[in-house]
């Protein structure tokens, strides 16, 4: 199977090397390695970058939508809670899967690894 694109890796949880859907072991946690080709996912450092961007993007989007709903329909407060809490949670989980998958695929394609410093013996 050919290497999947960044978007395919993010959307489907496909391994960036073989394309098998083995990238995630949980909702947003990476598996230790690919069960199909053996690619070690722990060698990549995705970190918290996607979470920070998603907090800003999803937070801003949900805030604008909630304010728009309030100003146009004036629903009771419980409607906002029942509507925006699950929408926010679902958007964060799926957004993290997509962003983390795409970032890991980018690191794989660009052969990004942890810094080794300037010591030639290391």
Q: Can you describe this structure?
A:
The chain has three helices and no strands. The protein has one domain (6-109). Helix 1 (6-12) crosses helix 3 and helix 2 packs antiparallel against helix 3 (77-109). Helices cover 53% and strands 0% of the residues. It is an all-alpha fold. It has helices at residues 6-12, 49-73, 77-109. The chain starts with 5 loop residues before the first helix and ends in a 13-residue tail after the last helix.
Topology:
Elements: H1 6-12, H2 49-73, H3 77-109
List keywords for this structure.
122 residues; mainly alpha; 3 helices; elongated
Per DSSP E runs of 2 or more residues, the count of β-strands stands at 0
Shape: elongated
Given the helix and strand composition, which structural class is it?
A: mainly alpha
Order of helices and strands: HHH
Radius of gyration over all CA atoms, rounded = 19 Å
Low-confidence stretches: none
The total domain count is 1
What is the helix tally? 3
Main sheet overview: none
Mean pLDDT, to the nearest integer, reads 89
Q: Roughly how many Å apart are the termini?
A: 36 Å
Q: What fraction of residues sit in β-strands?
A: under 5%
Amount of helix: 40-55%
Short overview:
The chain has three helices and no strands. It is an all-alpha fold and 122 residues long.
